[in-house]
Amino acid sequence: MVSIKDIALRCNVSAATVSKALNDHSDVGPATKQRVREAAREMGYLPNSMARGLKTKKSYNIGVLMVDKANSGLTHHYFSSILDSFKVTMEQNGYDLTFISSHVGDISCSYYEHCVYRNVDGVFVACVDFSTDAVKQLLESDLPVVSIDYVGEGGYAVVSDNEKGMRDALEFALGCGHRKIAYIYGEDSQVTSARLSAFYDVMQAHGCEVCELLLRQAKYLDGDLSYRLTQELLQCGERPTCIFYPDDTCAIAGMSAIREAGLTIGRDVSVIGYDGTPLLRMLRPHLTTIQQDTETMGRKAADMLLRLLRKQEILTEERVQYCSGTLLKGETVETPV
Hints:
Elements: H1 4-11, H2 15-22, H3 30-43, H4 49-56, E1 61-65, H5 77-92, E2 96-99, E3 103-104, E4 107-108, H6 111-118, E5 122-125, H7 133-139, E6 145-148, E7 156-160, H8 162-175, E8 181-185, H9 190-205, E9 215-217, H10 223-235, E10 242-244, H11 248-260, E11 270-272, H12 278-281, E12 289-291, H13 294-309, E13 320-323, E14 326-328
Parallel strand pairs: 1-2, 1-5, 5-6, 6-7, 7-13, 8-9, 8-10, 10-11
Antiparallel strand pairs: 3-4, 12-14
Helix pairs in contact: 1-2, 1-3, 2-3, 5-13, 8-9, 10-11
């Protein structure tokens, strides 16, 4: 491994001069800085992370916590896309990412203890059960933390505007003439609460009675459960003309149940998903869904965390930032017969 002494020998200067040149000190001339930096680059020099940490009191390491109930993790398109965008921005600013769990080797520990053990500078939290004590401890700790789709008291978060997404989708369905609308929603969370609230508000604003028989709770990404609940909805006395699903995976499962009942997607029963998963959008008929802006969410989360790490002021009204999705009109919604 190339050291500062090796660079000093090549440039015929002292090790102290090399260190100053690499750290852009003002008492080293521009020509010497350029010569030292070019030599360092050509020789493949990398600064020692531990030494860098001792000097800057930073590890340049960010903890990532993604542990959801469905055990989908990085296979969940929505969260993995946000993480990818977050990762790009953080790496552009010199940070590495480390995944946080409740174990260090064979030893059990809290998420916060794992973060301390890994000496992370800050934490990105998404796709977890925010109601658990372990997550609450982390959010309330002295570490800079930015969460996705969860607004805690005094915390920092980037949130998909689920209320607007539901409003846009429901307004579209109502505009197509649907009145018997069913909603299979996900487990309890701030996301689910926002969508349900918007569902009731829009239906009421249009003078449409919400039939409680057409509301069923499922789980996010649980296609099997959504399939069974769709079968129940199709067999009940108030068969819906349109069914909303908590995500695109559940919508595709529901479409299978509709076909197996001898019904046609769109003409007999319309379907609306959520997320805008690219792969599932390739299936025919093209799914009508809300495409969430994962690229912007990941970038905003990174920008917010960087501001916290740099101790830059974040106004109260900036602590929570919302990102709007886009209604993608596919082929699964038609005017009811």
